[in-house]
Amino acid sequence: MSIILQCGRIRYMISYLKGKILEKGLTYIILENQGIGYKVFVTPEALTKPIGDELALYTYHKISDDGQALFGLADFNTLQFFEMLITVSGVGPKVALAIISAAPVESVRQAIAAQDSGIFTRISGVGLKTAEKIIVELKNKVGPSGVSGGASSEIFDALLALGYNQREVRDVVNKIDNNQPQEQQLKQALQKLGNK
Description:
The chain is an alpha+beta fold and 196 residues long. The chain has helices at residues 44-47, 76-85, 93-102, 105-113, 118-121, 128-142, 151-161, 166-173, 182-194; strands at 2-6, 9-13, 16-24, 28-33, 36-41, 54-64, 67-73. The strands form 2 sheets. Strands 3-4-5-7-6 form a 5-stranded mixed barrel. A two-stranded antiparallel ribbon has the order 1-2. The longest helix has 15 residues, at 128-142.
C-alpha cells in the first residue's frame, strides 16, 4: 500500500492485495487481508477460485467523488494494460475489466495493432464508436506487433496524484510522445496541462 499526498490530503492507493477469499458475488470477491475485507471487482478467472483459497491480485484503486472501488488483475502486466485502456475517453474501469475478461491481453493488443474492432464489439457495453476510439487512441502505444510500452499508465497515475482530473489527464496522455523517456513525457504533459 502506497501513500500519495494530494492537495494537502493523504490518499491511500491500494496497489496489491494478497489474502483469503471470504465471499464471492457475480463480479467481485471479498478478500481478507490482515483482518480487513476488501471488495474487489475481478475477472471470471479469479471468480473460479473457491471460497477459502488464497489469492494475490495487483489492483487499480479508483477514487472519485462517487466513492472508491478496487479492480483486481492477475499480474502486473495485465494491470498496466488495464491502466492503458482507461486512458481512452469513454472507457472506465468496469469496461476495461470486461475487455480483459473477454480475451487474453495479447489478443486484445494484437487486435488493436491490426485495427480489428470485432474483439471489442462482442463485449457488452462496448459499441462500435468506443471500439474505434480504443484502436485510434492506443494503436501507437501497442506498436505494430501489439507490444505495449506501458509508460503512459504511469504518467497517467502521476498526473492524477498531482491533482489533475481524469478527463484532462486522458486528453494530455494521448497527445504526448511515447517514444521519449518517462521524465520527458511527464514534463511534456505538465507543459500541456499548464497551457490549458
